[in-house]
Design brief:
It contains eleven helices and four strands, in the order ααααααααβαβαββα. It is an alpha+beta fold. It is flat.
Length: 283
């Protein structure tokens, strides 16, 4: 397929470059950034038939576990002992070793101790797998383009920011969140859309039973602002009968970011969001 005009007019030329980079071992993300091809459909067509390099593929851990399970079974280990060593499920072990000889019976105490330890190892392995998936997914993102950050910030605000309602006019930009990473991304987005730091006002919302001063210092450090410049902290009344989970040293309440003179910016955000909705429509 060729593209007669526009950014991808020389489709064949770009395709040859993309294929060459793929054969050099570059990932889709690297090829996209190198060639500035930000349309996924076009990039898919350019790389059709070109396999991904091995380093981008996740290894099939179960093949290795199967081999280990069979070796341990040949050593006379029970399903529980194998689970203890490898942390995989008994159902998987059964499929892998059912053609091998059964070991000698064990005592009830041995079975109980092995089962307990096996479950502990299983939980450890599951946690390792969770963290590995997160690390792998994090590595897939890389540096964001300005457009990607722009779209992300619009969606972030529309999910978490203050919105205008017919019954309650609030054409101002105000963002509230307890997640420091969300706050950092939103502040980066405000910089991208041209909001000067002097237009920002901050204050904390937190339960009165928490470490209020510590929370104020934490959010001031995160935003690079002197805590004395924060607005008055909003204290939420503590209800001892409520079984709250957001307690302890890690509880720092929420940070409120108010953008001064932001009616026009709010209207643009709403328009940008409508554009995203229109652009994502199928059919």
């Amino acid at each position: 397929m060729t593209h007669a005009s526009g950014k991808y007019a020389d489709f064949e030329g770009l395709r040859k470059q993309a294929v060459a980079l793929r054969r050099e071992g570059l990932s889709r993300r690297q090829i996209r950034d190198r060639l500035k091809v930000f349309n996924n459909d076009i990039l898919d067509r350019m790389l059709t038939g070109e396999p991904a390099p091995e380093w981008t593929k996740r290894p099939n851990a179960k093949d290795d576990l199967r081999a280990q399970a069979r070796e341990l079974r040949l050593q006379g280990m029970t399903y529980d002992r194998i689970q203890l060593e490898l942390g995989c499920s008994k159902s998987s072990i059964s499929l892998w070793v059912r053609d091998l000889p059964k070991p000698a019976p064990r005592t009830r105490e041995e079975a109980s101790a092995i089962a307990k330890r096996g479950w502990e190892v299983t939980l450890q392995r599951r946690e390792q797998e969770r963290q590995e998936v997160k690390r792998s997914a994090r590595g897939e993102i890389g540096a964001l383009t300005e457009r990607e950050l722009f779209l992300l910030g619009v969606g972030l605000y529309w999910a978490e920011g203050t919105k205008d309602k017919p019954h309650a006019r609030r054409e101002r930009v105000a963002f509230v969140n307890s997640d420091p990473h969300m706050i950092q991304v939103f502040l980066a987005w405000l910089t991208l859309v041209g909001v000067a730091p002097e237009r920002l006002r901050f204050h904390v919302m937190i339960h009165e039973s928490a470490d209020v001063a510590g929370a104020e210092r934490y959010w001031a450090d995160l935003t690079g602002t002197d805590a004395t410049e924060f607005g008055r902290t909003t204290l939420k009344k503590h209800n001892p009968r409520t079984n709250r989970k957001n307690v302890g040293e890690q509880y720092r309440g929420c940070l409120v970011i108010d953008v001064q003179q932001s009616a026009e910016l709010y209207r643009r955000i709403e328009g940008w969001w409508c554009g995203i909705v229109d652009g994502s429509a199928v059919g």
